[in-house]
């Protein structure tokens, strides 16, 4: 049965075309039940687009492509993907590539059955959709599970989601005529409309079922159906029956395609009789399409595959998958993708015996960050006698997925079969990594040190030393860490991965010490070498992220944090099983939100980080500390204390290098509980410790907290030669010359201004913070300025109040000691009157409303003005708005 003309659907088609060409800039997804005509509508829409004006990519996801990472976008992405990219790196590479090929034309990405996209493809589609010049159009079948990045397309307003309704009676009649190639008798059209309920696929299957016998006949050119069917059969029943009636040859064709689509025509023809392929095509069961220079065979409709796969007994399914693997192996695996496909078929058919193939495929799946598939493949490789190479890869994957116990088991299972030194050194380091970070065994450092001494090859030794160095750093033995890392960097024989790991160690230390420029240069270098280390040592990524994140957080570079969060797509990367990386990014994201005063977001994101890292000992303490900070910012002392206790419980001694973050949070928790003396005492002691450890970057932030708590003039540090101690402000001035960047001088200036109490200077500092998006600090500096001004002349604070109100408007709930300074002690009644007056009510109106005389109202207002330090009604509104927790509009 040949393809018939497209019928009806004018409005939908127009809507699709205007989504692409219109000014709205939003794409369109059609959802609807199986067979209602979504795919056909999409095809028709694409066919109507001018190919010279748009760069159009059209893909259809299917159950078989869903099993492979980027399987859904094979038709779009080149077969060869660059090696050594991070998950985000791969996505970025793909986006850049499409943009390049589009050569300035607007991009249209059409996706049929977007619910069947594999996770990496779904993430990529979302990313593409975000680009300015791109429109995503596509279809979704109702009732199916939808990948999160696809769902996010409409929650992020990148596309509209429209339900595609069944055809109406007139359209159904038209379609019948199109299918049959001639007009249809009115009664027949009516009955078939009722039976099909306007579902084109059902209609087509009904006609196909009828056309076998003599119930469907043509008289004087008019088609008439005399079948007896009263109740509509289900679509799958009809397809079931039709497929059940296929000859064995044709059936074999449909089966192979059902398990292997898209399947090269040349491959298919090797396995079956070409005549049967033709028959299957004629019967409308399969279609042959051109993509990427080869002729591929796909099912004509996904339901055929669903029915076929369901009908197929397990033993036969496995035989078919083995056949498919053999076919592809016979013709030679031409694309990198083919390795993965063959391996998955081998795995599914229980014929996975070639460890080399499985290992290769596992590495590929891992390289595309499909952790579940990579795990399966690597495990199969190990079972197929893949030895220590397989064990190493599997252990690494398990470690990334936060399953260290299993990782150790895997490694120990091959301990006896390792014979050469090189493998031994790799095994030692991977096992060391799992044991130190995964299982928190601090003794690992000494074990590694001892076994490295026994290695003879300098390259192997360098590898071991690089691990020892970073373990020592994390365990806070910074002197030894630096010496070891430096030694690795100085050694020409050191493998790239070892050298870059050592560089991360140095870069992390530099960040903590406030040497941000050198740290940034080092990290840029590590990143530039990624292609050379990622395959060898994928976990180096985590060391790099920690070093980079430490620098960005300490230097208050919120834009930098935004950039990596956007770059690494923390939310999308979550689609994979990448707990450690995702969790750490979420902590950074929460940190940036907190400093901006977005306390809702900070709390939500840090809670998310805690959840992701629940079982990990690497960053859990850090995540809870960040949560404590977010709660403290909101003035929620109970939550803050609970989170701090959890941070202490989960913090691993092996990550001692993170202590400054935890201890800084403890200061905030004391302050949130209203115990400023305890906060001050704690933070002063912390500043001393940081100074001894040489962590100037951290020290600066802790001293900043002391300033925020009104302690700029308090003494810190040891007694100097002149017999006195430095003040917080003086120490900050010292640090501002030692710590890189523009934040330290600003902080030092803040401290001096806080000591002097000069409102103008404080306001200038506030502007400096605001310019860096450090909104909480800006608001606090402004509040401090107002506080000082309040002691002196009450006038001229209007503009400052306006500014504070603006800053607080940019925040969610924030309640910190500096902001609390401003909270005047107004009585309930005074609040009530102040709010009404701020809204513009006259004293008389207020009096009438509250049953008071105008004079009493006036008296109250005078008291309010003097408490708030404002001159009159005109300034009242801004004054109220500048008070945390007070909207200043209307009675609460
Ligand atoms: N407006 C139309 N004009 C002509 N034929 C149509 C029309 N709509 C659908 N068809 C035909 O009906 C059949 C089913 O439609 P289609 O494959 O588009 O369904 P679908 O909604 O994509 O189903 P699924 O959810 O199972 O993918 C196809 O053979 C298609 O060509
Ligand atoms: Mg479809």
- Helical content stands at 55-70%
Count the helices. How many? 46
Distance between the termini: 71 Å
Coarse shape: flat
Overall pLDDT: 87
> How many individual β-strands?
12
Order of strands across the biggest sheet?
Answer: 2-3-4-1-5
**Biggest sheet: strands, sense, closure?**
5 strands, parallel
**Attached small molecules:** adenosine-5'-triphosphate, magnesium ion
Strand content: 5-15%
Uncertain segments are 570-576, 887-892
- What would you call the structural class? alpha/beta
Whole-number radius of gyration? Answer: 34 Å
Fold blueprint:
Elements: H1 10-21, E1 27-32, H2 38-47, E2 55-60, H3 87-102, E3 107-112, H4 119-130, E4 134-141, H5 148-155, E5 159-163, H6 169-180, H7 186-196, H8 200-211, E6 216-219, E7 222-225, H9 235-244, H10 248-260, E8 263-264, H11 265-271, H12 274-282, E9 286-291, E10 294-299, H13 302-311, H14 314-331, H15 336-348, H16 355-367, H17 371-383, H18 387-400, H19 404-413, H20 421-438, H21 444-453, H22 458-474, H23 478-490, H24 496-512, H25 516-528, H26 530-533, H27 540-554, H28 558-568, H29 570-573, H30 579-595, H31 599-612, H32 620-633, H33 637-650, H34 659-672, H35 676-693, H36 696-708, E11 715-719, E12 725-727, H37 728-738, H38 743-756, H39 759-771, H40 775-791, H41 798-809, H42 817-820, H43 828-838, H44 843-850, H45 854-868, H46 873-881
Parallel strand pairs: 1-4, 1-5, 2-3, 3-4
Antiparallel strand pairs: 6-7, 8-10, 9-10, 11-12
Helix pairs in contact: 1-2, 3-4, 4-5, 6-7, 6-8, 7-8, 8-9, 9-13, 10-12, 10-13, 10-14, 11-14, 14-15, 15-16, 16-17, 16-18, 17-18, 18-19, 18-20, 19-20, 20-21, 20-22, 21-22, 22-23, 22-24, 23-24, 24-25, 24-27, 25-27, 27-30, 28-30, 30-31, 30-32, 31-32, 32-33, 32-34, 33-34, 34-35, 34-36, 35-36, ...
The protein binds adenosine-5'-triphosphate (ATP) and magnesium ion (MG).
Magnesium ion is lined by residues 38-39, 112-113, 139, 302.
């Amino acid at each position: 049965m040949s393809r018939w003309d497209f019928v009806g659907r004018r409005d939908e088609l127009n809507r699709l075309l205007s989504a692409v060409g219109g000014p709205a800039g939003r794409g369109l997804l059609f959802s609807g039940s199986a067979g209602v005509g979504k795919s056909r509508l999409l095809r028709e829409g694409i066919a109507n687009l001018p190919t010279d004006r748009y760069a159009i990519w059209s893909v259809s996801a299917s159950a078989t492509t869903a099993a492979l990472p980027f399987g859904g976008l094979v038709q779009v992405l080149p077969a060869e993907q660059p090696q050594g990219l991070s998950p985000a790196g791969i996505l970025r590479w793909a986006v850049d590539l499409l943009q390049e090929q589009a050569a300035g034309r607007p991009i249209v990405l059409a996706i049929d059955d977007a619910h069947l996209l594999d996770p990496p493809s779904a993430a990529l589609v979302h990313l593409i959709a975000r680009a300015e010049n791109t429109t995503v159009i596509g279809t979704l079948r109702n009732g199916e599970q939808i990948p999160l990045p696809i769902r996010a397309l409409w929650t992020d307003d990148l596309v509209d989601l429209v339900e595609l309704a069944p055809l109406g009676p007139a359209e159904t009649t038209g379609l019948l005529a199109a299918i049959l190639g001639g007009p249809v008798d009115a009664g027949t059209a009516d009955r078939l409309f009722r039976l099909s309920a306007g579902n084109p696929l059902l209609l087509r299957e009904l006609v196909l079922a009828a056309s076998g016998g003599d119930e469907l006949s043509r008289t004087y050119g008019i088609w008439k159906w005399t079948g007896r069917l009263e109740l509509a059969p289900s679509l799958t029943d009809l397809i079931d029956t039709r497929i059940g009636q296929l000859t064995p040859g044709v059936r074999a064709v449909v089966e192979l395609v059902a398990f292997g689509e898209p399947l090269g025509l040349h491959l298919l023809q090797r396995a079956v009789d070409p005549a049967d392929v033709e028959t299957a095509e004629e019967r409308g069961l399969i279609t042959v399409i051109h993509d990427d220079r080869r002729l591929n065979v796909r099912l004509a409709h996904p339901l055929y595959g669903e029915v076929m796969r369901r009908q197929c007994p397990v033993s036969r399914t496995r035989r078919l998958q083995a056949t498919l693997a053999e076919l592809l192996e016979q013709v030679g695996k031409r694309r990198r993708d083919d390795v993965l496909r063959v391996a998955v078929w081998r795995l599914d058919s229980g014929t996975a015996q070639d460890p080399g193939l499985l290992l290769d495929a596992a590495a590929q799946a891992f390289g595309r960050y499909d952790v579940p598939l990579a795990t399966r493949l690597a495990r199969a490789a190990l079972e197929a006698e893949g030895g220590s190479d397989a064990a190493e890869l599997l252990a690494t994957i398990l470690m990334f997925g936060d399953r260290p116990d299993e990782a150790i088991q895997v490694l120990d299972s091959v301990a006896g079969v390792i014979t050469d030194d090189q493998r031994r050194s790799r095994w030692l380091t991977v096992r060391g990594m799992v044991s130190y970070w995964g299982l928190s065994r601090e003794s690992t450092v000494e074990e590694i040190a001892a076994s490295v001494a026994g290695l003879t090859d300098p390259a192997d030794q360098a590898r071991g030393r690089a691990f020892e160095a970073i373990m020592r750093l994390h365990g806070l033995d910074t002197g030894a860490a630096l010496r070891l890392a430096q030694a690795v960097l100085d050694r020409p024989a050191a493998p790239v991965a070892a050298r870059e790991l050592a560089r991360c160690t140095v870069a992390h230390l530099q960040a903590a010490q406030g040497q941000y420029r050198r740290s940034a240069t080092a990290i840029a270098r590590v990143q530039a070498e990624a292609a050379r280390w990622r395959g060898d040592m994928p976990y180096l990524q985590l060391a790099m992220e920690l070093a980079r994140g430490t620098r960005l957080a300490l230097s208050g570079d919120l834009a930098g944090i935004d950039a990596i969060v956007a770059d690494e797509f923390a939310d999308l990367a979550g689609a994979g099983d990448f707990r450690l990386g995702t969790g750490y990014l979420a902590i950074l994201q929460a940190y940036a939100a907190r400093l901006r005063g977005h306390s809702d977001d900070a709390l939500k994101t840090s809670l998310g980080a805690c959840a992701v890292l629940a079982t990990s000992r690497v960053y859990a303490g850090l995540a809870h500390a960040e949560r404590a900070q977010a709660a403290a910012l909101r003035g929620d002392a109970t939550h803050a204390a609970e989170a701090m206790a959890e941070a202490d419980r989960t913090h691993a001694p092996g990550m001692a290098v993170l202590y400054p973050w935890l201890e800084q949070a403890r200061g905030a928790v004391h302050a949130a509980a209203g115990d400023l003396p305890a906060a001050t005492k704690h933070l002063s002691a912390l500043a001393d410790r940081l100074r001894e450890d040489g962590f100037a970057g951290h020290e600066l932030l802790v001293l900043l907290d002391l300033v925020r708590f009104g302690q700029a003039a308090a003494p810190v540090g040891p007694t100097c030669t002149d017999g006195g101690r430095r003040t917080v402000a003086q120490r900050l001035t010292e640090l501002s010359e030692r710590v890189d960047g523009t934040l330290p001088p600003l902080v030092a200036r803040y401290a001096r201004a806080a000591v002097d109490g000069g409102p103008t200077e404080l306001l200038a500092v506030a502007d400096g913070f605001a310019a860096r998006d450090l909104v909480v600090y800006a608001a606090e500096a402004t509040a401090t300025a107002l506080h000082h001004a309040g002691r002196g002349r009450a006038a001229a604070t209007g503009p400052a109040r306006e500014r504070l109100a603006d800053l607080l408007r940019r925040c969610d709930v924030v309640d910190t000691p500096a902001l609390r300074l401003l909270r005047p002690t107004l009585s309930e009644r005074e609040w009530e009157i102040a709010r009404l007056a701020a809204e513009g009510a006259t004293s008389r109106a207020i009096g009438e409303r509250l049953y008071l005389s105008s004079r009493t109202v006036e008296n109250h207002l005078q008291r309010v003005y003097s408490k708030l330090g404002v001159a009159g009604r005109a300034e009242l509104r801004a004054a109220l708005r500048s008070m945390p927790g007070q909207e200043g509009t209307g009675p609460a």
